[in-house]
Write a structure and sequence with these properties.
Blueprint lengths: L2 H20 L2 H17 L1 H6 L4 H17 L8 H15 L2 H9 L6 H8 L3 H17 L4 E5 L3 H13 L3 E6 L2 H10 L4 E4 L9 H9 L6 E5 L15 E4 L4 H14 L7
Parallel strand pairs: 1-2, 1-3, 3-4, 4-5
Helix pairs in contact: 1-2, 1-4, 2-4, 4-7, 6-8, 6-12, 7-8, 8-12, 10-11
């Protein structure tokens, strides 16, 4: 496989990570674009990508971090600049959340996350524990589950309740989702794409977003259908079959940013 083919194969998932990291489709895609431009301009960086997916994410992480560390305020000392840079980075997505997203949503091993973030494996493990604790302590919200497979719906219900949230309703079709929302607006939506009666989870979500802004996480066995770049795409996307830790991380990140447009 050529380098361009290798990058192209990993690019949709880098875009997924970038969006979850920034809480925005547009911002995430801009960081990915900046990464590719940096790779083209740097022969050493370009050569490093031949080592695989980890190198691509490592290149992205350097661009992401530099956005908050490259520009010093006039009159700042180097120490003050470093502190300010760390505060700016933490205000977007803390390192703990980055480590958790890389290890769950993107399924990197601890050594791979350490390489991407340029920290020790021990630090990665500590950051992941910290992120999980933060999510467990987060304020509760009401969750609508749009899923037509009963066993998966029940699994998601148990997971959501285990995180301290409540279920405002479940729906297997677009019509059922409309009925739930008519009675109570959720604070978070977990949605499949293909529903029981042939209706679309995308359309069900569009109905909700027409009424209010609410974080949405799509959970689908066909992520490639939403990562083509041909249409508005989700900010939070989990692949089936999923690990509960992955859904936990996505929920935590979606609620971290609060009300946000999952499609833009």
């Amino acid at each position: 496989m050529s380098l361009s083919e290798q990058v192209a194969a990993n690019l949709p998932y880098l875009r997924r990570y970038a969006r979850a990291l920034t809480g925005s489709q547009a911002t995430g895609d801009n960081f990915v674009r900046a990464t590719l431009e940096a790779v083209l301009a740097d022969p050493e960086l370009k050569a490093a990508l031949a080592s695989g997916r980890t190198a691509l994410y490592r290149a992205f992480n350097k661009i992401w971090s530099s956005a908050y560390t490259d520009t010093a305020m006039p009159g700042e000392s180097s120490g003050m600049h470093e502190l300010a840079a760390q505060e700016r980075l933490a205000s977007v997505t803390p390192l703990s959340r980055q480590a958790l997203l890389l290890s769950t949503l993107e399924d990197f091993s601890t050594p791979q996350v350490a390489e991407i973030m340029d920290i020790s494996a021990e630090k990665v493990e500590a950051l992941v524990r910290e992120a999980v604790s933060e999510i467990d302590r987060a304020a509760s919200t009401s969750v609508l589950i749009i899923e037509d497979e009963p066993l998966i719906s029940m699994q998601l219900e148990d997971l959501v309740r285990g995180l301290g949230h409540e279920i405002c309703g479940t729906a297997a079709t677009r019509t059922q989702a409309q009925q739930v929302v008519a009675e109570r607006m959720p604070g978070l939506v977990l949605a499949d794409i293909q529903l029981a009666d042939g209706s679309s989870g995308l359309d069900a979500v569009d109905d909700i977003l027409a009424l209010t802004e609410v974080p949405v996480i799509f959970i689908t066995a066909y992520p490639e259908r939403l990562l083509t770049g041909d249409r508005p795409e989700p900010t939070y996307l989990v692949t089936k079959p999923f690990r509960e830790a992955t859904v936990r991380a996505a929920i935590g990140q979606a609620l971290f940013f609060g009300s946000s447009q999952p499609l833009s």
